[in-house]
Amino acid sequence: MNRYYFIFFFIGFNLFAQDQNTYLDSISNQIKTQKPKQALNTIIEIPYGSFVAELEKSEQLFNKGIELSKSINDSIALGEIMFKYGQLKSYQNKFDQGLEYTLQAIRIFEHQKNNTKAGIAYGGLGYNLKTRDLDKGFYYMQKGIKLLEIENDLEGLNPVYDNYGVLLSMDKKLDSALYYQYKSLAIKKQLKDSIGLGYSYANIANTFAEKQNYELAKTYVDSSSVIRNKIADNYGITVNYVHIAEIFQQEKNYIKAIDNYKTCAELANKYKYKHLEKYCYQNIATCYKKLNKYKDALDFNERFQALKDSTNNVATQNKIEELQIQFETEKKEKQLAEAKSDILIKEAKIKRKTTLTYYAFGLAFFLGLIGYLVYKQQRLKNKQIIKENELKEALIKIENQNNLQEQRLAISKDLHDNIGSQLTFIISSLDNLKYFDFTKEKLYNKFDSIGNFTRSTITDLRDTIWAMNKEEITFEDLKTRTTNFIEAAKTSLLGIDFEFNYPKDTDNVKLNSLQGIDVYRIIQEAINNAVKHAKATKIVVNFEIVNNDLKISIIDNGIGFDQSTIEAGNGLSSMKKRANEIDADFEMKSSDQGTEITIKFKM
């Protein structure tokens, strides 16, 4: 699905919990009685949520700020106003003007050597370019991150990390996206940034939705909504309806998706967020088309076309590209001039050192040649013998280390993907308890649910550690681990008959750690599927050894399913992926008499 992300770049200001209309009106009245410098600071400090809520009034105030900063010759203040003005123009769908103001702000900050403000502006520029030129968006955001990391500015890195995660998610680099989004979330908690928490949770929800983990995505959207409703963040509340609508749309629940898009469109129309309103109409038309309601689809498509702005025409796009080229050309010309000056200085130093350098090299060469001739014959023989032996030992050691490292990296990735997501869910669930009023009974039930989920996570973690701590896994280890799992299942799942068959003489049978954990996980997943979905009353696990091949079968007498009509869920996909990691043949047969899953691979 071509997803659209709405969490725009923001600066960590505190949002005033009051009516936004009266707030900007009060600012306009306040600056009339202030001196120019004080009035300019008042305009610069307008919170992000306030100027987004009333774009027309904000534009008047920013124009006044530009006039004041020029009158008192305050270039840094002018750059800050220009940057905010660029954001405002983007909200008005005037992206060419927004880009022009942002580039002016960057020029000012770089001229003043203010890395922090330049880094924030580069981050905003990259984020606003993401839907037009993703590569350019990455380029500018990486420049911003580099500048902010040099200054170690947490307040600046906070939103830039978050939005960089959005770009990575758009580029389908989902694990990297979560890495930066969680870094931003940690900073927000450290800074007690309540507004930013709403944005972080919403962005993380988008990434989990891209990973098709819809339940976890909904949990994060709910966390975001609790915070945004608590602080009356109108823009954030409006955007969250889009997030939840997109999740329902991906789940093909088009009715709920349409309801949430319509709610968002109404709020967007009320607060004049035209880009949100336009996007909602476009997706409502798409959902109605999926439901074969072509009349409704046509109606909302016409609304979308009516709001479609000029940013898509060739002239505007050419202007955007021209501004980028002009900006880059200016920077390259400046860099060339600086480089030329550096070259002249370095050439002068080199000329002074050239003679001494030649003498030093000549003397070193002469002494080295004498030593080489004296010891050449004997050293050559000894060195050759030693190197041959060292090379053989090194090759054997490197090969063993590489094999072991590859296995541990694969298991570490499994630990990151599975345990990481489960721990994240536990943390989110605990965080959410702070924002709801629970009865004693509901609270105990919630704790029981989190406790059960935590115990399951601990079991998975122990299994992974078991594999990582072994360079190789004997067949006896795998058999014992599987037996314990089946015995535990027998105890907790009354009414299901388990059978486990395996060969007796397996003393010399060994697996590497990756094979051991992947086989064990496949058996777990197959048994869980048989219990949860197949309504099985008997489950059989067979281990067979043929030559150097290990064949494992998991057979149940459940209701089965039609493979031609049922899409592969996360469980089946996970089993296939694990089989592929250990070069195993994977086969599944299913009918109304039951299901048989077979894997076969060389040990």
Automatic annotation (TrEMBL):
Keywords annotated in UniProt: ATP-binding, Coiled coil, Kinase, Membrane, Nucleotide-binding, Phosphoprotein, Transferase, Transmembrane, Transmembrane helix, Two-component regulatory system
SUPFAM superfamilies the record matches: ATPase domain of HSP90 chaperone/DNA topoisomerase II/histidine kinase, TPR-like
Catalytic activity: ATP + protein L-histidine = ADP + protein N-phospho-L-histidine
Residues forming coiled coils: 313-340
Cellular component aspect of the GO annotation: membrane
Signal peptide: none
Membrane-spanning ranges: 356-375
Name by which UniProt lists this protein: histidine kinase
